[in-house]
Amino acid sequence: MIAELGLRWILTLLFAAAGSFCLYRCARRPGFSGRAADALHAAMCVGMVTMAWPATMTFARMPQVVLFAAAAGWFAVTTALGFGHGRLPGAHHALMMAGMAWMAFVMPSAMAGMTRSATAMGGEHAGMDMGDAGMTMTGHAPAHVVVVAAVLAVVFLAAGIAWLARAIDHSRTVARPGRREIGLATEGVMSLGMAVMAVAMI
Predict the structure, then answer these.
(1) 125 lies in some domain
(2) How many structural domains comprise the chain?
(3) Are 140 and 112 in contact (CB under 8 A)?
(4) Gap between the Cα atoms of 86 and 186, Å rounded
(5) Contact, 130 vs 120, CB < 8 A?
(6) For residue 127, what is the DSSP state?
(7) Which UniProt keywords apply (predicted)?
(8) What pLDDT sits at residue 103?
(9) Is 128 within a domain?
């Protein structure tokens, strides 16, 4: 999905770090609800990494759709019942999981309107297996995919900035940032990563 190799690696490292933190926090949480939330966020990070790489972006596509749709329902229900960290964070978590399910579901149609072209240092070499090196994506996704992706990109961008702002504000009030501040920053990074992935579908 991500044509630029450098951006793929940046997203991979960011989501790997976010997923590792979610697993660490999951192991230290006392309650089931919090642990389930962290486990689902870690699974989301794994899914985002697979979507960033052309070789694995359709890996276990339908199981991902089912998993993240169920996760969206979980966050929606727990938020409505008053669990979690509040209605806005809970709604954001539900939307991120729903966004993951949607991305996995529409991936074939999103890629159907795009074609690959491979370029090498000395020019174009038709008929050669170049792997992911020099690969670019051309064309456009269907209109309905573009509209939804654009809306998700704007929402996740705004949410990511808000999460990072909260992390900075909290860090200013403590002598040493802890799990709470890192958790807020992780939420921001994941939301911004979702925004980048949504833009990549346009």
Answers:
(1) no
(2) 1
(3) no
(4) 17
(5) yes
(6) T
(7) Membrane, Transmembrane, Transmembrane helix
(8) 92
(9) no
CA distance 194 to 187: 11
Query: Any alpha helices (H) in 53-136, and if so which ranges?
Result: 61-80, 87-112
C-alpha gyration radius of the chain: 18
- Could you tell me the maximum CA-CA distance found in the chain, to the nearest angstrom? 61
Q: Give the pLDDT confidence score for residue 134 in this predicted structure.
A: 44
In this predicted structure, what is the pLDDT of residue 195?
A: 95
How far is the C-alpha of 84 from the C-alpha of 72, rounded, in Å? Answer: 14
pLDDT value for 139? 54
Residue in 75, 108, 111 with CA at minimum distance from that of residue 92:
75
Q: Give the dihedral of Cα atoms 6, 98, 29, 17; nearest 10 deg.
A: 0
Contact predicate 20/11, CB 8 Å: no
Phi, psi of 136 (to 5 degrees): -130, 155
153: domain range? 5-114+135-200
In a domain, 9, yes or no: yes
Q: Give domain status of residue 109, yes or no.
A: yes
Measured between alpha carbons, how far is 78 from 86 in angstroms, rounded to an integer? 10
Q: Show the tokens assigned to 113.
A: 């309107």
